[in-house]
Amino acid sequence: MKFVTEFASDFMGLFQSGGKTFVGWMTTIIPTVLLLLVLMNAIIAFVGDKKISKLARASSKNPVTRYLILPFVSAFMLGNPMAHSMGKFLPEYYKPSWYASIAQFCHTSNGVFPHINPSEYFIWLGIAQGVQKLGFNTMDLAIRYMLVGLLMNFIGGWITDFTTAYVCKQQGVTLSKEVEM
């Protein structure tokens, strides 16, 4: 009977812990993301949909701006998870590749720009601690990690373009390469 009681107590403890985490999110990350959404929508309203569409069209014209420059600027300015929302301005065809690129970049830049993904900063700190124990400079590692990340995120985004083309052909689906606002 003791086993059943402990199991039930521990089982309920999972949900109580989840509830505490949820309430923590309601007072930390959710208001931050909500305010970033408000800011982004205010900027879009101030600048205008046509100009934003023009910027998206210009950014989507080549892989360098699409998977190297735009993800870097989005992650740096908006942080994770808000940086993902910039993909809404890209054509449907490039959205899978955008996600591949931006999702990776929000991780590979943590050592230099911890504000991009503060929830995972502890992972970087764990790695940095080992590097420090070896007597190496952690900023050297952070910059290398970011530069390799930029290159790999660009390659990952571009390769996803080819994957998208393959799947579209296989499934008989046509995705637009034009920005639709």
From TrEMBL:
Alphabetical UniProt keywords: Membrane, Transmembrane, Transmembrane helix
UniProt xrefs under InterPro entries: PTS_IID_sorb
Segments passing through the bilayer: 22-47, 67-87, 142-160
Any single GO BP term: phosphoenolpyruvate-dependent sugar phosphotransferase system
Keyword Membrane: yes
Name of a matching Pfam family: EII-GUT
A single cellular component GO annotation: membrane
Protein name: Sorbitol PTS, EIIC
